[in-house]
Each structure stands twice: as structure tokens, then as C-alpha cells.
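Action item from last week, closing it out:
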Amino acid sequence: MSGQQHPAAEREPSTQVYKGTRPGGRSARVRAAVLAAAAEELLEHGYDGFSMPRVAERAGVALTTVHRRWGTKARLIADIFADATAVAVPEPQGDTLEEDLRTLAGDVAASLENPMFVTLLRSAFVLPDEELDALRQAFWVSRYAVANSVARRAIDRGELPEGTDGWAVVERVHAPIWMRLLITGLPVDGAFIDELVRDALVLARRET
């Protein structure tokens, strides 16, 4: 189970996502205020009604600051999702692969049961195709990086062989949760997460 990368990692997004550092002090406070204001703006007005001037006003910053850091509303919206996901589903730091997968599954389920997160997610579905593609790539590239980090630690502990594709392991836990909570409406409980983690571990070890 190695070698081939997730498609999102193979190319840069066609719309460049804000990639600035996350410094402390005033710059961090400005960034946090703008992202919070942008999230509120997106929830209230959707993509078509999204207004950069209103975001600046809500955040209490100059419009030039918003344009200088993000440039377009597509970049700003992409950063909302990247930031929200990093907070809701951070990289796990468990002592075993099983623990990491279980933590990821619980965090993904919790985020997709959060009404505000889901509303933000669904708001993005109305983006123009080229901008939705950029957002999709930016979102999954960050998730792919987390998956690879989880696999790297498992490899270092001797739980998986060198070259294991982290995303191929993590996807088996992520995908059914997304399917249930966003499409079928079926529940995601502890027993279901246990089953997903167990199956992912069995398949990872069998394929390697």
C-alpha cells in the first residue's frame, strides 16, 4: 500500500489559497477576526452575497487589509475551511495507530454533527466549479498531510512498513462517516467507529 498519492496532492490548487504564516500578536488577532467575520458573512449571505467590505467592517479592519492578505473571496473562504477543519479535526498524537484512527474518527464525526460547520461546508457547494475545485484541493491536501503524519508515526513505531500510504489507511475511517452524516443520515456511534477502526487496521496490515 504505497507510492501513489491522493489526487489532491498531485497539483497546486488553481486558485491559490492564502498560505501566510500564523504569527502571534496583532497579526494573529486580525486574521482570527477576519476569518470569524467571513464565516458569519458566508452563513448569512452565501457565496453570491458574500461581501468583502462587510467582512472588513464586521472584523473592524480596513478593507485593504483583507484584500492584501487574501485577495479574493474564494481564497478567504478556502482559508475559513482550512482553519475550521484544523481546529475541529487536529492531527492526533496518540501512542498507537489504533488510538490515532479512533481520535480522527471521533473528531470527524463531531465536526460533521456541528450545525455551523455543516452549514459552512454546504455553503461551499454553490461555488463556481473552478473555485470549488480549488477549495476541494486545498481542503484535502491538508487532510492528506495529516494522514501521512499519522502513518509516519506508525511506521516509526513498527506498526506499518515503510512506504505505507497514510491516506489509504485514514480514508477507510473518514469516508463512511462522511457518507452517513452528510448523505444517508444514518447514525455514527461508538460501535460503528470501533468497526471502522478495526477494519482499517486489518486491511492496512493485510495489504502491506
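Closing note: Residues 113 and 181 are 7 Å apart (CA to CA).
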